[in-house]
Design goal:
It contains 14 helices and 15 strands. The chain is α+β, with helices and mostly antiparallel strands and 396 residues long. The chain has one domain: Creatine Kinase, Chain A, domain 2 (2-Layer Sandwich), CATH 3.30.590.20. Helix 5 packs across helix 9, helix 6 packs parallel to helix 10 and helix 6 crosses helix 11. One of its GO terms (molecular function) is ATP binding. One of its GO terms (biological process) is modified amino acid biosynthetic process.
């Protein structure tokens, strides 16, 4: 929902010629939940926390839609190590600011503990959204991760959107990090996804004929009343309205920096693979829209620990098999960007410890207390990520 933050806006997001090959820039936005440190319930504390953020970082920290949310944005870069550093610094500073304000910050898809829904941030655009859409506000805070990857021009960007759409459900499953809501296990790995779909403009990206078709659809959706403006185009992948990037926005916010870096590396490799196919004249697969909807629902329900829909055949397969197939497809692009070893190490950690949803459920299974889940997520949010080549995970 929010625009990209200060430093991210100042840098050029696109492709850079390095070592004889085009390398794509990548930047990350993360949204977090502010909660009471004792009860774990969401609290309307964004103004208090913003006051405590160090002045030199305020250009990379923003309010989000609800007063229980706060957002950070990394500057775009060519190296995953720079994304790791930026997110690590910002998360630690935000956790300290929240602590000084008397609250906790959680990298979690939505609030697990029952409590009042905090009000929306006082902003004219948000006021208009509430006036138009009324009770669609999804719970105590709906927190996602958005990955921006530079593309050379909008026409190429639209082609990239067509190429990546069959692969987004499995990335959706990898990011699942919200199994609890209102004090209960929802039965979904990503309850945020289910709440988010209450907004009428949330959907898988449709098949696009051209950039002109993309623009025409936006105008028609605004005229229909389901969107106030282009900023409410909540497709799972879209062109940024302000920057020369493709924006992938299907996932829950990741619990750790390691998880976020993994998704950033995979998304960039997915876009690079699409651009390689476009340059070679290989057409995108026009996946049936309804099957794509089913695949995203299954990803939200099962996460990576269950099953997913193979969009090539329509068959249901173990989600890890689908993820491994995606990684195999992306290996050349990962190697091109120098990310293969780092991403491989992070996948090893994910394989051992599971998605954020699996980790939350494991804590609850041990203690039976959602306050312990909240405490564990808070620790993961703040935690300093380790060198992925050491095959260790931040929660070890």
């Amino acid at each position: 929902m929010a625009a990209m933050t200060g430093q991210l806006a100042e840098a050029t997001a696109g492709t850079t010629e390095t070592g004889g090959s085009d390398r794509l820039t990548v930047g990350v936005e993360e949204e977090f939940l502010l909660v009471d440190p004792h009860t774990g319930a969401a609290v309307p504390a964004v103004d208090l926390v913003m006051e405590q953020v160090p002045a030199e970082l305020r250009g990379q920290v923003e309010r989000e839609f609800q007063t229980s949310q706060i957002e950070i944005g990394s500057p775009p870069g060519l190296e995953l190590s720079s994304i790791r550093h930026s997110l690590g610094v910002l998360r630690a500073a935000l956790a300290d600011a929240a602590e000084r304000a008397g609250v906790r910050v959680l990298a979690i898809g939505t609030g697990p503990v029952d409590g009042p829904i905090p009000p929306v941030v006082d902003k004219p655009r948000f006021d208009r959204m509430i006036e138009r859409f009324r009770l669609l506000v999804p719970g105590p805070g709906n927190n996602g991760m958005h990955v921006h990857v530079g593309v050379p021009d909008p026409d190429t960007g639209v082609q990239v959107l067509n190429h990546v759409r069959p692969w987004l459900p499995i990335l959706h499953a990898v990011t699942a990090n919200s199994p609890f809501s209102q004090g209960e296990d929802t039965g979904y790995a990503s309850w945020r996804s289910i709440e988010w779909e209450r907004w009428p403009s949330v959907a898988p990206t449709p098949w696009l004929e051209s950039y002109e078709h993309y623009g025409r659809l936006i105008r028609q959706l605004i005229d229909s009343g389901v969107m106030l403006d282009e900023g409410m185009l909540y497709w799972y992948a879209r062109l940024s309205a302000k920057y020369p990037t493709v924006e992938i926005r299907i996932g829950d916010v990741c619990p750790t920096v390691d998880d976020a870096v993994l998704i950033a590396g995979l998304v960039r490799a997915l876009v690079q693979t699409a651009m390689t196919d476009i340059a070679a004249g290989r057409p995108a697969v026009n996946t049936d829209h309804h099957l794509l909807v089913a695949a995203h629902w299954r990803a939200a329900h099962d996460g990576l620990e269950g099953s997913g829909v193979d969009l090539a055949t329509g068959a249901v397969r173990p989600a890890w098999e689908l993820f491994d197939a995606l990684v195999d497809r992306l290996r050349p692009a990962l190697a091109q960007h120098g990310d293969l070893d780092q991403v491989t190490g992070l996948i090893d950690g994910l394989r051992r410890h599971g998605t954020g949803a699996a980790r939350q459920r494991a804590v609850f299974a041990r203690t039976g207390r959602l306050t312990d889940v909240v405490a564990d997520v808070a620790q993961q949010t703040r935690g300093t990520a380790v060198d992925p080549t050491a095959r260790q995970h931040v929660t070890d």
